[in-house]
Design a protein that fits this description.
About 40% of the residues lie in helices and about 0% in strands. The protein has about 120 residues and is mostly helical. It folds into 2 domains: about 40 residues; about 40 residues, no CATH class.
Length: about 120
């Protein structure tokens, strides 16, 4: 089956050729099965109730007028210990995580350990 020039034309050890043949057969089988699975998955769009149908767009509500921005906080205020600010930031992180990619946020509580000003 396979020949080595250094051995003067003698065939490779039969066990090596069997191992190579088994490896190639295994790789071929794996790729055939993967192609078959991807074909089956591509057929899911034709199943009724599979969720592949696009939901109808809900009518958009009129945009709310934005409130005027508040005056900036005084420099003497210590906002790090403000519990209301921590709650608002935690809620914003939770809302962002639940909206990214349609992924749901786990039931674990979300804990903000520290807040630092970005520069």
């Amino acid at each position: 089956m396979l020949m080595l020039a250094s051995q003067g034309g003698d065939a490779l050890n039969p066990t090596v050729s069997i191992m190579v043949a088994n490896s190639l057969m295994g790789i071929l089988i794996v790729f055939c099965v993967l192609i078959f699975i991807s074909f089956i998955i591509s057929l899911f769009r034709y199943l009724p109730g599979s969720g592949a149908a696009k939901p109808k767009a809900a009518p958009k509500a009129a945009p709310q007028p934005k409130a005027a921005p508040k005056a900036p906080a005084k420099a003497s205020e210590n906002l790090v210990n403000d519990q209301e600010l921590v709650a608002v930031i935690t809620a914003a992180i939770y809302a962002y995580e639940s909206s990214v990619g349609g992924a749901s946020v786990s039931g674990d509580p979300l804990i903000v350990r520290s807040i630092r000003r970005a520069r």
